[in-house]
Amino acid sequence: MPETPLLRRAPRTDADTEVEVEVEVDAIIALASARGARTLTLGSGRTPTALATMAAVATGWERGGGRIVDHVTWPESAASWLRQARRFTATTPDLWIMTGPRLGWAQMTRRLLWSTTWTPHDTLVTAAIADPAALELVGTAHLDGLTGIDGDGSAWCVADGQLRLRR
Questions:
Q1: What is the per-residue pLDDT across 40-82, written as a single tens digit (0 to 9) for each?
Q2: β-strands 147-149, 155-159: how paired?
Q3: How far apart are CA 128 and CA 87, in angstroms?
Q4: Per residue in 1-33, is it b (16+ CB within 10 Å) or e — as a string?
Q5: Which residues are registered as beta bridge partners of 157?
Q6: What is the pTM (predicted TM-score) of this model?
Q7: Element (H, E) at 111
Q8: Is the peptide bond before 48 cis (omega within 30 degrees of 0)?
Q9: Does residue 104 contact residue 134 with C-beta atoms inside 8 Å?
Q10: Which of the listed residues 26, 75, 107, 128 has the most CB atoms within 10 Å of its CB?
């Protein structure tokens, strides 16, 4: 690992990704339910799209009888993301759900890997993170077990350092 978990030079990325939120949220909830989850901790950037996506996940999850343990937000730029990473992992949910935007997610994820006991295996991410370029900001070699949903509701995972579609 490098001496710091943070990206030295932040690449330019689009601020938000628009997707069909209802399809994405339904797929996330179905996937979390299939894994037997009962409690979730949500994590998101602070953009309107990210916050709306997480609000929709929370509403759908609670409507189905699940419980949201916490919702932690993070900025797109910060000194270290350590405070947010510690708060995100202060709870012990069955699963963590994360969304972008991509750059803030990558920085937060790098901090989580570096400074906490968080593992990607117990994490589902939304379509905002589905871009291989977003995953490479962290490095797929460090994301084994991470599972995500594309905007069309299809699932993918990282296995052996490679992005793979799930059937």
A1: 999 999 999 999 999 999 999 999 999 999 999 999 988 889 9
A2: antiparallel
A3: 22
A4: eeeebeeeeeeebeebbebebebbbbbbbebbe
A5: 147, 164
A6: 0.88
A7: helix 102-115
A8: no
A9: no
A10: 128
